[in-house]
Design a protein that fits this description.
Blueprint: H1 2-12, E1 32-36, E2 39-43, E3 50-53, H2 55-63, E4 70-74, H3 90-93, E5 96-98, H4 104-109, E6 114-119, E7 122-123, H5 131-136, E8 141-143, H6 162-177, H7 180-195, E9 205-209, E10 217-219, H8 224-231, E11 235-236, E12 245-247, H9 250-256, E13 260-265, H10 271-280, H11 288-291, E14 295-299, H12 300-303, H13 309-320
Parallel strand pairs: 3-4, 3-6, 4-5, 6-7, 6-8, 9-11, 9-13, 13-14
Antiparallel strand pairs: 1-2, 10-12
Helix pairs in contact: 6-7, 7-13, 8-13
Length: about 325
């Protein structure tokens, strides 16, 4: 299913990895004003040396055919399964700046004229790598919409439903780089793919497990898994949490008794290690998902805002049909 969806998308978008459209809406020497995280931002000219942080953000640029506007990306080794990704050639065309995260140093070394990252997706207060700090160096930023801070606390994130955030970024980037038609075609393709998903007859309760043993790191209503789960026909048991990626207590998981658990696969702890922990963790022994061993694995890039979200919805929906 993943490969078929990728082929369909490739055909729809008129040549995967196609060159950037040159349109009258964003000529090189004309300023462009966009809205990012609720703020108007004006660019004197179209950026030509964009650097990105993390796999989902990088693939948003690739999916729009903007490789020739990029000076590099930072991300760990694990990009997830690329076999069904139509824009995977971007990885061969753009420089890999760091297998960790972006820093002021590698941004300046790349002569970047735009940093595309997000809060907790590269931007972080503890190291001083923030849009304000970059602005002082003369480098503008674009913040991933899924990660926009919402003002409920100093760090809580999310201002709209996750798929709306994906479509917002594609639309806004299309406006900034003059590829509005390509962005619109991608969005229409993604919406069609999601609309064709066959959800289970009943809505199983689903818990997203990212990491953590003392307390689990999971998805509130504003992180991509929330809408991936709902669009796949499930119900996120932490939908009531007004944040994106966040920590809850195991007592919450036990009380809400999910029928299935989705593991986010990334990092040094493998998906199999996470699965063994969940199945052996005594407080979870009476949880339906654990008793029935209903545990499904998705790649990290499937579960953060990225152009792989529609495929993840289709695959999760197929699995949830097995949950009863």
């Amino acid at each position: 299913m993943r490969q078929l969806a990728a082929v369909a998308l490739c055909l729809t978008v008129t040549g995967c990895g196609a060159s950037v459209e040159k349109t009258a809406s964003a000529p090189e020497d004309k300023s462009v004003t966009i809205t990012n995280c609720g703020k108007k931002v004006t660019f004197d000219r179209v950026p030509e040396r964009v650097v990105t942080n993390d796999v989902g953000i990088t693939e948003l640029m690739f999916a729009l055919g903007l490789e020739d506007r990029m000076a590099g990306f930072a991300m760990p080794d694990d990009k997830g399964d690329l076999s069904g990704v139509p824009w995977k050639d971007g990885y061969q065309k753009v420089k890999w700046l760091s297998k960790d995260q972006l820093t002021k140093e590698n941004v300046l070394d790349a002569r970047a004229d735009l940093v595309f990252a997000g809060w907790n997706y590269g931007f972080r207060e503890d190291s001083g790598f923030t849009p304000d700090a970059l602005a002082k160096l003369g480098v503008p930023s674009y913040i991933l919409t899924e990660s926009c801070r919402n003002g409920r606390t100093e760090t809580s994130r999310g201002i709209m439903p996750p798929l709306e955030a994906l479509y917002t970024d594609l639309t806004t980037l299309g406006q900034l780089f003059g590829v509005e038609q390509r962005a619109a075609t991608l969005i229409a393709s993604f919406k069609k793919e999601i609309a064709q998903v066959e959800a289970p007859a009943e809505r199983p309760k689903v818990f997203l497990y990212d990491s953590g043993q003392d307390a689990p790191f999971t998805s509130g209503k504003y992180a991509a898994p929330d809408q991936i789960i709902s669009a796949a026909g499930g119900e996120n048991v932490t939908h009531d949490v007004d944040d994106s990626w966040t920590t809850v207590g195991w007592e919450t998981v036990v009380a809400r008794n999910p029928d299935a658990i989705v593991i986010c696969d990334y990092g040094n702890v493998s998906a199999e290690q996470k699965r063994k922990f969940l199945l052996s963790y005594a407080p979870l022994k009476n949880v339906a998902a654990v008793k029935n061993k209903k545990i499904f694995v998705l790649d990290y890039v499937d579960l953060v805002e990225s152009p792989r979200n529609p495929s993840a919805i289709a695959r999760l929906a197929a699995y949830l049909k097995t949950v009863s």
